[in-house]
Amino acid sequence: MGVRARFTEIAAAAVDRVAQGNWPDPPEQYKCHSIDKEWITFYQVFKDKGTPLSRAVVGDVLHPRSSHTFEQFCESGHEWYVAFISAPLVQAIAKSLGALLLGDLKRWFEELEIEFTEYDSIMFDTMKTAYCSAATRGNALMILIA
């Protein structure tokens, strides 16, 4: 199973091309935000929080050429996962992450008996930056876990 995750900002229209089975052209300038191995922890913490947070690591558009879903990726030991977060979902997640207090995040970790570290805080800020930056520009995100 993939180890590290990163978000790459892409144009909103690129998600439509992906849904039609076409790989998006890379933008001239794009921003990547690595959340390293923390994708696993963030998925565990957010998965039961409802939409939009439950989709923050999973996305909402699976590439049509992908041979596996996120659940299959986690269960079956696939080497990679790629999905897209459409611009409307990016907006919703950015709003939720922006409103999330660090104290609430720490409490959610504690509820799952996961130690909250400074590294978790740094990676959370990175994920929030990825979403908020893309939302500000009306863009989508691609998540790659490999």
**Structural class by sheet pairing and helices:** alpha+beta
Report mean pLDDT, rounded to a whole number. Answer: 91
Named CATH topology:
Hypothetical protein yfbM fold
Shape: globular
Compressed to H and E, one letter per element, the order equals EHEHEHEHHHE
Largest sheet: 5 strands, antiparallel
Number of domains: 1
Cα(first) to Cα(last) distance is 7 Å
Strand content: 15-25%
- The strands making up the biggest β-sheet line up spatially as 2-1-5-4-3
Q: Give the fraction of residues assigned to helices.
A: 40-55%
Number of DSSP E strands: 5
Low-confidence stretches: none
Count of alpha and pi helical runs:
6
CATH superfamily: YfbM-like super family
CATH architectural label: 3-Layer(aba) Sandwich
Provide the CATH top-level class: Alpha Beta
Please tag this protein with its features.
6 helices; 146 residues; Hypothetical protein yfbM fold; 5 strands; globular; alpha+beta; 5-stranded antiparallel sheet
What does this structure look like?
The protein has a five-stranded antiparallel beta sheet, sandwiched between helices. It has one domain: 3-Layer(aba) Sandwich (Hypothetical protein yfbM fold). The radius of gyration is 15 Å and the shape is globular. It contains six helices and five strands, in the order E-H-E-H-E-H-E-H-H-H-E. The protein has helices at residues 12-19, 38-46, 70-76, 87-99, 102-111, 118-137, and strands spanning 5-10, 32-36, 61-62, 81-85, 140-145.
